[in-house]
């Protein structure tokens, strides 16, 4: 399932959506939208306001202990139909007048979990009333939103927190408990892609829904409309545009197809990743789109190759083009890189540094460029200089890959043992790629011999193993191959020109 060319990925990844509209469609949207949008949003808001107290009532007055069990009784049979009716009405008001249904939603005993794909936007919740409001998995940020938070509580959702390191383990335990409860907990609904795409391919499924090894029902969600307005992805159309263009149509077609229940084989039960991959392929085939190895890690879209996470927008290439844009010549960049590695090697200050320090190392007067570079690499205030040094050096071609690997190896093997541990290898690959690497076990086993991972073996695997060779070529070398791996002045110049024209840092969605 590996992509043939990881590099052209920059152009073909499915995390980008742009509405292509003719002039006539644009005018139509403005005219219809100015009438329909306010009307629809007002009605939907009113319905949401009505849902709020009803949703709250469901868990009102219950102890935490009672809430940790499935809610039963009047709170269920009375409030459930009301919420179902109101949520259907909300979508009706937004233009989802009817939803075409193919197949039949499996009952809880047949399939404790429904896996829905492709995930297009928050409007995908249109599927919920058709599935008797199956329980969803959501992020903890969502619970603080007005109304939505109350509805999530209503659904007794499983909440994932990005900040709590314990959260992952808790969620896995909670999911397993619910999915294997034999009918005690209600049915669950999951979007195994974990993020939204433009639907041109199915991205890698997260194993969550497949961990328990129970049967799943694949559900296909399609929006067969002339204007594909319902999508909201990492880049491109904003959520406001999604809402505006969807509300500006007379109606929006939606189709939900319940596929036959998929029962895992013994092998799939043991290996949730295999199970997830097989269901992904099955659903992609039914949709007539390719299945790919893209995933969202943190908030960054990456391609998975040989266990490595390769960010689609290379932080190193983006940094380099930004440096050139802010007037640094190739030799300035080279000098700055030398200052960086000197500081890392001196060991006195450690490798973490703030945006201001980075600005001074780079010899920049404005802190903004340095701040942007920091943000390519890390989400917090400080950045690991080793990541910047190695990743930028690799793509700038000032030093050969072999020489760079030698420097990295020495830095990540501070005891000078001549061999790296699995953890040190993961740090080294993270520095080279400019992105944390958590799954370097495959690479480690390929490159180690009798528990020893030497520089020589690592270089051999990285430059001759078909998978890793490709990674090095596409991600750890200058854009244009200039024949020799050894950089010379000419190579640097060529490189600069191509990078200047790249400009892939635009349109980054501000989240
Ligand atoms: C969706 O992504 C594909 C690449 O996978 C791209 O070719 C296509 O133009 C994108 N569609 C839209 C509508 O942006
Ligand atoms: C809630 O979180 C999920 C991810 O689990 C996301 O797809 C969805 O858009 C969020 N909903 C809202 C209303 O923010
Ligand atoms: C939970 O159930 C309500 C009730 O219909 C539904 O509207 C809502 O979208 C569901 N999911 C979430 C994420 O709140
Ligand atoms: C909805 O689907 C029908 C075909 O099933 C199509 O003729 C119609 O144009 C679609 N509506 C929109 C708004 O795209």
UniProtKB/TrEMBL annotation:
One of its GO terms (biological process) is phosphatidylcholine acyl-chain remodeling. Residues 486-505 have a biased composition (Polar residues). One of its GO terms (molecular function) is lysophosphatidic acid acyltransferase activity. Pathway: Phospholipid metabolism; Lipid metabolism; phospholipid metabolism. Keywords: Acyltransferase, Lipid biosynthesis, Lipid metabolism, Membrane, Phospholipid biosynthesis, Phospholipid metabolism, Transferase, Transmembrane, Transmembrane helix. Gene3D superfamilies: EF-hand. The chain crosses the membrane at residues 29-52. SMART domains: PlsC. Residues 486-511 are annotated as: Disordered. Residues 400-435 form the EF-hand domain. It is found in: Membrane. InterPro entries: EF-hand-dom_pair (IPR011992), EF_hand_dom (IPR002048), LPCAT1-like (IPR045252), Plipid/glycerol_acylTrfase (IPR002123). GO terms for cellular component: endoplasmic reticulum; membrane. Belongs to the 1-acyl-sn-glycerol-3-phosphate acyltransferase family. This is EF-hand domain-containing protein. It comes from Champsocephalus esox.
């Amino acid at each position: 399932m590996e992509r043939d060319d990881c590099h052209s990925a920059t152009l073909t990844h499915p995390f980008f959506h742009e509405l292509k509209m003719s002039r006539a469609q644009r005018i139509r949207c403005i005219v219809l939208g100015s009438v329909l949008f306010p009307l629809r949003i007002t009605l939907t808001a009113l319905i949401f306001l009505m849902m709020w107290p009803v949703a709250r009532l469901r868990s009102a007055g219950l102890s935490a202990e009672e809430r940790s069990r499935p809610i039963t009784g009047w709170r269920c049979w009375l409030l459930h139909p009301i919420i179902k009716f109101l949520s259907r009405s909300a979508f009706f008001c937004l233009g989802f007048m009817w939803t075409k249904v193919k197949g039949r939603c499996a009952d809880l005993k047949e399939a404790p979990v429904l896996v829905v794909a492709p995930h297009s936007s928050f409007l995908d919740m249109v599927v919920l009333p058709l599935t008797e409001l199956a329980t969803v998995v959501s992020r903890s940020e969502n619970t603080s939103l007005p109304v939505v938070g109350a509805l999530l509580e209503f659904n007794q959702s499983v909440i994932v927190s990005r900040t709590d390191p314990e959260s992952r383990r808790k969620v896995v335990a909670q999911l397993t408990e619910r999915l294997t409860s034999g009918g005690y907990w209600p049915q669950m609904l999951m979007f195994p892609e974990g993020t939204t795409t433009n639907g041109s391919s199915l991205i890698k499924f997260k194993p969550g829904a497949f961990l328990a090894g129970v049967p799943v029902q694949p559900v296909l969600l399609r929006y067969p409309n002339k204007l594909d307005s319902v999508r909201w992805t990492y880049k491109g159309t904003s959520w406001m545009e999604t809402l505006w263009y969807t509300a500006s149509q007379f109606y929006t077609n939606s189709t939900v197809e319940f596929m036959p229940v998929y029962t895992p084989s013994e092998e799939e039960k043991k290996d949730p990743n295999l199970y997830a991959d097989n269901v992904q392929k099955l659903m992609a085939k039914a949709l007539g789109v390719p299945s790919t190895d893209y995933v969202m890690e943190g908030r960054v879209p990456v391609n998975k190759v040989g266990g490595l996470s390769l960010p689609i927008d290379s932080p190193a290439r983006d940094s380099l083009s930004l440096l050139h844009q802010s007037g640094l010549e190739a030799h300035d960049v080279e000098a700055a890189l030398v200052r960086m590695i000197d500081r890392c090697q001196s060991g006195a200050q450690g490798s973490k540094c703030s945006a201001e320090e980075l600005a001074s190392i780079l010899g920049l007067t404005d802190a903004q460029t340095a701040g942007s570079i920091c943000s390519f690499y890390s989400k917090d205030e400080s950045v690991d200089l080793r990541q910047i040094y190695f990743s930028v050096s690799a793509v700038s071609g000032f030093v050969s890959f072999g020489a760079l690997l030698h420097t990295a190896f020495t830095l990540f093997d501070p005891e000078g043992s001549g061999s790296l541990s699995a953890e040190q290898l993961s740090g080294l690959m993270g520095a080279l790629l400019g992105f944390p690497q958590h799954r370097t076990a495959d690479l480690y086993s390929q490159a180690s011999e009798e528990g020893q991972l030497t520089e020589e073996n690592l270089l051999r695997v990285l430059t001759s193993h078909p998978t890793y060779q490709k990674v090095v070529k596409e991600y750890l070398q200058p854009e244009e191959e200039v024949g020799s791996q050894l950089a010379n002045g000419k190579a640097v110049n060529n490189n600069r020109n191509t990078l200047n024209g790249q400009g892939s840092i635009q349109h980054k969605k501000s989240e």
